[in-house]
Write a structure and sequence with these properties.
alpha/beta, six-stranded parallel beta sheet
């Protein structure tokens, strides 16, 4: 495995590779990240994992400076899984102040976009930059950040990028908590409570499968229940998988039967994100 920190060196390393499979990360790797890299290996070619904490996607009150940088440990975990680790400093990706950004559709201003203004613009801009730097044929992203994955798919489709996007299933702890770099911020009491977010999503999914179609009521009930347990809720939402728009099921329309239930809420100082897919039976 080769560790590279400059664009020039990376392009030189990849110039003769016929197929590149890319896994972008912000480091502080856990089993969820490693699962994405293992998926990348299944697609063949040269596997490149990037480690870059992107300042453009952090708001002024968010944890950019505190975000864990664990490059040495990350490289040890990637040994034998990735062929190349691209870990550039900030001034390599942004040698000058970034004044050109990707303009995103209105969906990017909803859900996490409403709670974190500018987040997806910063994310999409760095992803486009990384695609232009790495030039992969395939890129792998996790489904845990469901809205992010949706936006990246739109980015690729509408800007005609020659990259196939693969979504990896969320990796969970034994008790169901979605693995996240931010889980380490939870204290022992919060860690015990954190599993309720996934349990709540499972409860909504079961209600939908049993025929409940008052999605607004399900969402409101979930928000109220989380709040009584000490959570500060950004959203609980039932949306169509295809466009992340609110659901208005129409019998016979397949696009209205493939749904996703999404939630984001804070427990103490930690913002947790999760989702679960559900398909309605005709």
């Amino acid at each position: 495995m080769q560790l590279i920190s400059t664009i020039t060196e990376l392009r030189s390393r990849l110039v003769n590779e016929r197929a590149v499979v890319f896994v972008p990360t912000m480091g502080n790797l856990h089993e969820g990240h490693l699962n994405l890299v293992k998926m990348a290996r299944e697609h063949g070619g040269c596997v490149v994992a990037s480690i870059f904490v992107n300042p453009l996607q952090f708001g002024p009150s968010e944890d950019f400076d505190k975000y864990p940088r664990t490059l040495e440990a990350d490289c040890a975990r990637l040994q034998g899984l990735a062929d190349v680790v691209f870990a550039p400093p900030v001034d390599e990706i942004y040698p000058a102040k970034q004044t050109v950004f990707v303009e995103l559709p209105p969906a990017a201003n909803e859900l996490c976009g409403a709670a974190r203004p500018g987040h997806f613009r910063g994310m999409a801009t760095v992803v486009l930059k990384l695609f232009n730097i790495v030039r992969p044929q395939v890129a792998v992203f996790g489904k845990k950040d469901y809205q992010q994955l949706h936006i990246i798919r739109q980015l690729v489709a509408q800007l005609n990028l020659p990259v196939r996007i693969v979504g990896g299933e969320t990796v969970r702890a034994a008790d169901g908590l979605a693995l996240s770099s931010r889980n380490q911020y939870l204290n022992a009491t919060e860690r015990g409570e954190a599993i309720f977010l996934y349990q709540m999503l499972q409860g909504i999914r079961q209600a939908v499968l049993q025929g409940e179609r008052d999605f607004e009521r399900l969402q409101n009930q979930a928000v109220e229940t989380l709040a009584t347990r000490g959570w500060v809720v950004d959203y609980v939402a039932v949306r169509n998988q295809s466009d992340l728009q609110p659901v208005n099921p129409v019998r016979g329309d397949p696009a209205q039967r493939e749904l996703v239930i999404l939630a984001a809420a804070r427990l103490g100082n930690t913002r947790l994100l999760d989702n679960i897919e559900v398909c309605l039976v005709q």
